Amino acid sequence: xxxxxxxxxxxxxxxxxxxxxxxxxxxxxxxxxxxxxxxxxxxxxxxxxxxxxxxxxxxxxxxxxxxxxxxxxxxxxxxxxxxxxxxxxxxxxxxxxxxxxxxxxxxxxxxxxxxxxxxxxxxxxxxxxxxxxxxxxxxxxxxxxxxxxxxxxxxxxxxxxxxxxxxxxxxxxxxxxxxxxxxxxxxxxxxxxxxxxxxxxxxxxxxxxxxxxxxxxxxxxxxxxxxxxxxxxxxxxxxxxxxxxxxxxxxxxxxxxxxxxxxxxxxxxxxxxxxxxxxxxxxxxxxxxxxxxxxxxxxxxxxxxxxxxxxxxxxxxxxxxxxxxxxxxxxxxxxxxxxxxxxxxxxxxxxxxxxxxxxxxxxxxxxxxxxxxxxxxxxxxxxxxxxxxxxxxxxxxxxxxxxxxxxxxxxxxxxxxxxxxxxxxxxxxxxxxxxxxxxxxxxxxxxxxxxxxxxxxxxxxxxxxxxxxxxxxxxxxxxxxxxx
Length: 484
Known about the structure:
- By secondary structure, this protein is an alpha+beta fold.
- The chain folds into 3 domains: 10-117, no CATH class; 137-341, no CATH class; 359-476, Sandwich (Immunoglobulin-like).
- Helix content is 40%, strand content 14%.
- It has helices at residues 39-44, 53-65, 75-83, 96-106, 137-145, 147-167, 180-187, 195-204, 206-229, 233-251, 260-278, 285-292, 300-305, 315-341, 408-412, and strands at 49-52, 91-93, 116-117, 359-367, 373-381, 388-396, 402-406, 419-421, 428-431, 434-437, 442-447, 462-467, 472-476.
- A hairpin with a 4-residue loop joins strand 12 (462-467) and strand 13.
- The longest helix is centred in the last third of the chain and has 27 residues, at 315-341.
């Protein structure tokens, strides 16, 4: 504003001449010399300084236009901030021209009245002023340091979207085995906070599922590209934070040894939160837009959504916000880690849902009148990388005596209408070695009766299934004729 001539308001600093004896008014370096012409010294001599409110208003407008408004104050708020820092004793007037006219009218003939006028006399600039320019060294260094974080965070989400839209479009093909619905269903057993019910609802309503997959993939692609380019950086980073939390809740339990999905989501959450706070002001389209249109610095939406300048907050508020964001990230990441694996305040454990060992949940079992067995089954644990296999089914009595047995060969010959899947994606089906199931599959299965076997009425037998690894899963059945 001053062409580099003033870095601070030196006119309010006491000069060397102020220490001189005021009685020695002829001293060329004393109190009445040019060596003591500061504003406070002149005020002590009776000079009155007037500050023009109109000039302050214009000065605030100029600060905003040149991008020197780090706290993103509105025009009237910035003018008020300047007014609050007038030099002590300066008289604020509505308009200097009108005030001088009034003063001149008040001067009686024969009287002398000294009037000194300064347009604006302030003891400081607005908080953090001038430090928010793009060339400010510390801000620039921080922005460059965050380049790798911004770019890789963007590339991760851009990669997720581009794989579906560009490089692997079969992921968006409902008829392909790699269709995204299959991956969503595989996450259902361990999904947290009701997201399992959300997944199930979408899987049952294709007209909602398909648009949801397209919109999610498109948002990943756009947000990732925006982060890499530095366009509306904070908004894109905030979107990536949302992605990280959703993916953590749905897929965080998966990963046989290193909980891979949790690790990626935890890192992405921290990276996204950092970019929301710090922006990404180096080598970005946000910077290009700001340099072409400095007035954007006065736009609240630009300061909050883009990444060129600091957030329009005071240092104290920004610090508190940063600590609150840190606390939220730590609580979410450490809380989910403790839930999935312990190792925080509890010993290490495999999690409520195992990501390695397949597990079958059996329910609604009934012994049919003809000796067949009907039950509901859910593959609710294990890795989605390999299917689970049921090799044998047995019906046993109260003393564990065998009543009926369906071995691998029998299960392999089950008719197709014996299995009624709940979902159209990951399913239970007959395979070459028994019954095969994909992660998250749910079905109602009917085992036909063996020839010449009629379980006695009134008995409540137990169904026991054995998988390929020899693990057994049992269910008490309702007797023939009873409600299951």
